Amino acid sequence: MNAAPSRTVRTTCPYCAVQCNFDLHLEQGLAVRITPTRECPVAHGTVCKKGLAALSDLRHPDRLTTPLLRRDGQLVPVSWPEAMAYVRETLSPLVQSAPQRVGVFGSGSLTNEKTYLLGKFARVALQTPNIDYNGRYCMASASAALNRTFGLDRGLGFPLDDLPRSDLIVLVGANIAETLPRSCSTSRASRTAAGSCTPLTRAPRPPPRSPGGTSRRAPARTACSPWACCTS
Fold first, then answer.
1. H/E stretch holding 177
2. Which pLDDT does position 221 carry in this prediction?
3. How many helices (H) and strands (E) would you count in the chain?
4. 221, 168 in Cβ contact below 8 A?
5. pLDDT in tens, 74-118
6. Could you give the C-alpha distances from 93 to 89, 99, 167, in angstroms and in order?
7. What is the mean pLDDT of the chain?
8. Bigger pLDDT: 226 or 156?
9. 24 forms bridges with which residues in the sheet?
10. Rounded CA separation 228/181 (Å)
11. Where are the beta strands (DSSP E) in 62-121?
12. Quick check: helix, strand or coil at residue 172?
């Protein structure tokens, strides 16, 4: 049996909403290395350290690699054909009698194409209107704020390229170094823009505590320190 040839597959980082591209380098069908995609129109040939660490998730010892089916109270590995047959046999009577009782739960890490297919699968194959994803609650407050401010309920509401041209950037209850790391390098570019940008941060949540038990309170106004810890 011939070994699978080496090849490179372009994909989308699943970490945050910026949707950076990187290339997976495959050896014998297994991903062995990640490199940023130079032609990516968003990341411009860079990927944050969290995106570059995505390869470790593929090899994590706790990662599921086969379907699990509960038998006698225990989850046991089964083959994909057996797992799909179980799903078909279990769902078919419910879909035929009461499809509105079926729900589909997606993920914010899915690409646009996969999200489209999941919606088609729910509405056409399962004939159910009940489809949602894990961002319903974590994005509810942001959705309400964006609707009131910009008249839309998803996305940034502005292109990232606008940040270097900004005079003032206000972050309220946000740490973009953790939640939107790729935007940090774009934000740091504002330091070299004409007039320079001043970031203003407000943290309504209690600050994290240091190992010694004291609060690590960040200053409310700082000279671009919100992005000092970001890497690309």
1. helix 176-179
2. 37
3. 8, 9
4. no
5. 999 999 999 999 999 999 999 999 999 999 998 877 778 888 999
6. 7, 9, 60
7. 77
8. 156
9. 9, 34
10. 11
11. 68-71, 74-77, 104-106
12. strand
Which pair of tokens denotes residue 88? 């078909």
Look-up of token digits 């499809």: 99
Q: How many CB atoms lie within 10 A of CB 11?
A: 14
| Residue 76 Rama label (left phi>0; alpha psi -120 to 50; beta) | beta
Count the alpha carbons within 13 Å of 202 in the hemisphere toward its beta carbon: 4
Contact at 8 Å (CB) between 100 and 73? no
Beta-bridge mates of residue 85: none
pLDDT score for 107:
82
Residue 180 CB neighbours (<10 A): 20
- What pLDDT is stored for residue 212 in this prediction? 55
* pLDDT higher at 61 or 169: 61
Closest residue by Cα to residue 181 from 17, 12, 10: 17
- What is the CB neighbour count within 10 angstroms for residue 20? 23
Other C-beta atoms closer than 10 Å to the C-beta of 14 total 14
How do strand 131-133 and strand 168-172 relate by DSSP bridges? unpaired
Both tokens assigned to 91:
């769902």
Please list the residues that pair with 71 across neighbouring strands: 74
Beta strands in the chain (DSSP E): 7-12, 21-27, 30-36, 68-71, 74-77, 104-106, 131-133, 168-172, 198-202
pTM for this entry: 0.57
Q: What is the pLDDT of residues 27-80, one digit of tens each?
A: 888 888 888 898 888 788 888 888 888 888 877 888 888 999 999 999 999 999
Distance (Å, rounded) from C-alpha 104 to C-alpha 208?
36
Q: Does residue 174 sit in helix, strand or coil? A: coil
